[in-house]
Batch of 2 targets.
Target 1
Amino acid sequence: MTVRTRFAPSPTGYLHVGGARTALFNWLYARQHGGTFILRIEDTDEKRNTEEARQVIYDGLNWLGLDWDEGPDKGGPFGPYQQSERSDIYAKHLAVLEAGGHLYEDNGAIRFRSPRKTVVVEDLICGRIEFDMSNPATHPDMTIRRPDGSWIFHFVNVVDDIEMKLTHVIRGEDHLSNTPKHIELYNALGVTPPKFAHIPLILNTEGKKLSKRDGGSSITFFMDGGYTPEAVANYLCLLGWSPGDNRERLTMAEILSLFDLAKVNRRNAIFDLDKCFWLNGQHILAMSLARFAELAKPFVDKAGIAYGTDEALIQALAIVKAKVKHLSDVPDWIAFLFSDEFSFDPEAVEKSLKKPGALGRLKALEASLLTVSDWTHVTVEAALKETALALGVKTGELVHPARVAVSGRSVGPGLYEIFEVLGKDRTLARFERARSLAAE
RNA sequence: GGCGCAUUCGUCUAGGGGUUAGGACACAGCCCUCUCAAGGCUGGUGCACGGGUUCGAAUCCCGUAUGCGCUGCCA
C-alpha cells in the first residue's frame, strides 16, 4: 500500500512553526516512502476561508521546499481539498452512522454515541496507549454537527482521512487525547484506522504552547527576517529528532536519508531562536554563492540598492557571504560598495582616523596603492604589507584607518576584498576624501 | 477535578543496567587574525524528588512533584 500523508491546516492567515514542522514530518515521511503528500484546508469555520489565508499557507510551504501532490490548488483524485466544499461527502458518512444507530440529537446538534469501551491507540512515536472511554462524565459523547448544519472537526477530519485514503496521520501531540474518539468513529464507519504518529509540541520560551502572540511563531517571521529555508527546515527537524551522530547542520537531502519517524522523541521542545540563528549562519556559510545570491537578492532589491548588474551584485555578495547571519542584513553590509554616500561612524573615525599619525600612514598607503597596476585583493594586500614594513608599523595601523576611509566603519568584509570590489579609482578617491577626517 | 503524555546542562539533544554522562546553541577565557565573523582550544553549569528491583540505576518498576495537552456545538 502506498503511503499517503497529509498536512491539514486551518486557514488562519498565518503558518505556525509547529504546523510547519508537522507538514515537514509528513512530507518527509511521504517522500521517504515514495508516497503521496496531500494538502487539505480545514475551513469548516467559514470566516477563515479566504484566498489570502490559503495563500499564506502555500507560500510558507513552498518557501520551506515542501511540495504537495494533491491539494486545493493542485486537484487530485479525492478532492475537493477544502472542507468547506465537502459537505455532501460528510452528509453521506453521517447517513452511514445514522443507519448504524450511532447518532442521536441533542438540542438540535448531532452527537455520536460512544461505544464506551477501552480504546487502544498504537502510536508510532508514543507506543501503545489505552484509553478507558467507559465513563460518560469524563469522556462525553462528541458533537459532530451543529444545529446550523455546520460540521465539527473530529468528524470531518476522520471522514476526509478515510476518503483521501490516508495511511499515516502524523500530527501534533495535542491530538493524542482526541485519537480514541477518532478511532471510535473509524470503527463505527467500518474502516480500519490509519497509523498514528503524534509528535511533540513546540513551546515558547515560557514553556507554553507557542501561540500567535509569540515572536517567531509564524513562518512569515523567518521569511521576512532573513532566515534561509534550509536553516529553518533544518532547525525544525532538530526539534524532537536527532540524526544521532552529533551533527547539527544538515541539508534537506541528508535529512531525507536520515530522518526516522520512529526516532522522534516524546518531549515538547522550547523553540530556541538563538540556535536557529546560528544554524542560519552555518547554512549561509555552506551554501553556494549562486544560492546565496538567489536568497539575498530580494532583500537587496527591496532596500533599493543600485548595484547595476547582477555580476556586480554577486561580486559584492561574495565578500560578505561568510560574515552575514541574516539575509536581511545584506543590504547594510554591501551598500557602501555601490554608493559613496555612506555615513562615517563617529566612533570608528575617532578610533582610527583621528589616531595620531593616521594621515601620514594613509598618504603612504595611497602612494603605494597608486603604483599597483594589476588591482586584485592579492596585489593590494602585498602593497599594504610592504608599506607597513617600510613604515615600521603593524598592518593594523594601516588597515584600520583605510577601512574607515573606504567604508566609514570599523567592521565589514575583508579590506583587500573591499579594495578589489571598489576598484582602484574609487578606492583612491575615497582615500583622498578621508584625508580631511584624518589626524596628522 | 478526570484522563493522557513528558521530565538528562539555561535551551535543543545523545545515551535505554557498569560511561570521567557525549555533542550543539548561549555564556566566559585563550589562540588565530586587518575588523567582524568563521575556525581551534579551554571552562562552568545537568540525569526533578522519594522508594524499590539489582552486586550495580540517569537507564527498569512504583509513587510524588512539576510541566504540557485533552476534557468545546474551536481546529
Target 2
Amino acid sequence: MSTQRGPEATRERLLQAAANLFAERGFHGTTARDIAGRGAVNLAAGHYHFGSKKDLYLEVLRAEFSKVRRELSRRRVIRPPAELDRLSRPQLMKLLLTRTEVMMAMLIGPPPSLHSTLMQREMCDPSEALPVIVAEFIQPMMEELEQILQRLAPGIGAEVVESCAFSMVGQALFYRFTMPAWLHIKRRTSYPRDLARTVAAHITEFSLGGLERLAHQHGRQGAK
Amino acid sequence: MSTQRGPEATRERLLQAAANLFAERGFHGTTARDIAGRGAVNLAAGHYHFGSKKDLYLEVLRAEFSKVRRELSRRRVIRPPAELDRLSRPQLMKLLLTRTEVMMAMLIGPPPSLHSTLMQREMCDPSEALPVIVAEFIQPMMEELEQILQRLAPGIGAEVVESCAFSMVGQALFYRFTMPAWLHIKRRTSYPRDLARTVAAHITEFSLGGLERLAHQHGRQGAK
DNA sequence: GCACGTATGAAACATTTGTTTTAAACATTT
DNA sequence: AAATGTTTAAAACAAATGTTTCATACGTGC
C-alpha cells in the first residue's frame, strides 16, 4: 500500500507523509527532503503536485480537517437541535458524557490524533488554515456542546453557557496541550490506556457541578 | 538602554531579543541573524556568549522561568501550608479567586506574558528545558492550588483533588492556548482588557460547583 | 504503434542557515 | 604605558534548504 504506484497514490503518500511530519516536527522543523523520504517519493514531487511547501502544508490541513468533519458526522456528534429537545435530563447527562468521551478520544487517543496535534501547532503559529480548523472542528463541537448545556440549565444566558462550554473544552484540551508536562510529572512515557474515559467522566461530573452552581447564581441574580 | 555598552549589557540584550523572538516565532522559526539584528549585536556575539543557538535557547528559558519563580514568590502565590489552615471557608474561596486572577493575568495579560508563550511552544516541542518549566512554574501553581481545593472539600481523596486542579488549570490555559481561535471566532484582534478578571471569576465559580458535586459524589461512594 | 500531455527521477541552483575564523577595539593589570 | 585577557566586528565557510531544470518514463488518445 505504501509503495503503490500511479499519480493518485503518489499525491496521497505525499499528503500522508507530510501530515505526519508536520504534526511531529511542525512546519519549520520539517524539510522537503524529510517528506520526500518518508513518502518514498522524489524531492520534486512535492512542488509538482502542490506548488510549494507552504501550499502542501495548507493542503494537508484542509485534507485532515475535512476528514475530521466527516468523522464528527459519522459519530453523530453534530445532531439536529430538535433531536435534543426530546431528551430527558438523565438522557442529556448521558449524552454529555458520551460527547466528552468522543472529544477526549479524539484528543488523546490512544494514539493522540494527528489533527489535534496539527491544531495545537496552529495555535502557536496561526496560518491561513486556522479558519478551516475553526469551521470544521472547533465550531461544530462548541455548538452542540452549548446546546446540551443550554438544555441542562435552561435558566442561564447564552454568554454563561458559552463560558461553560469553554470551561469544558478547556479541561479536555488540557490533556492534549500539556501532555509533555503531565508525562514528566507522572514519570511516564505515554498516557494510561483508559485515561480518555476516566478523564471524560471526571470532566462531565465536574462540569455538571459547575453548571449547576452557575445556574443557581444566575437564577438568583435574575430574580432580584 | 537598548544601546548600552559593555559585555554585561550585550549579553542581556541578546537574551532579551532571543526571548522575544523565540516566543514570537519559535526555535526553528528564529534565525541567529534575526536575534543579532533585534538585539543590535553582532552575529558572532551569540556564539561567543552562549556557545550555540540551542544553548542560547536553553539559557533564555532558564532565565525567563527563574524570573517567573521570583514573581510567584513576590505575589505570595507560594505560601506555607500552615497559613491556609487558619483561613475560614469564605476566606479560602476569596483566596481561590485571587489565585485564579493571578494565574489568568500571567497567562493572558494584557499583554500575554513571554513565559506562557514559551511554555506553550515547549508543549509542542519539548526540550531539555521542560523540567525547568515544570519545577519553576507548573508545580508551584499546582501544589498550592491542590492545597486550597483540599481544604475546601476535606472529604475527597488526593487523586480527585488533583483532577480538579487540572480542571481549573485547564480552564485557565484554554484562553492562552487557543487564543488565535478565540480571536477568530469573536472577530477581534486582541483580548478585551478585563477578560482576565472576568474569566477568573467564572472559572472560580464553575470550579467551586464542580468541587462541590465531586465532594458529594465521593462522600456517597465512601459511605456505601 | 505513435504522438502527446502527464508524472517521475536525478541533478543543479540560488539562498539561507548555524557556525567559525581572524583581526581590531576595549578594558584591566602590572 | 605596555602587556594581557576579554569583547566586538566583519567576513568567510560548509552544510542544509526550498525551488527549478531537464531528461526520461509512463499512460492514453488517435
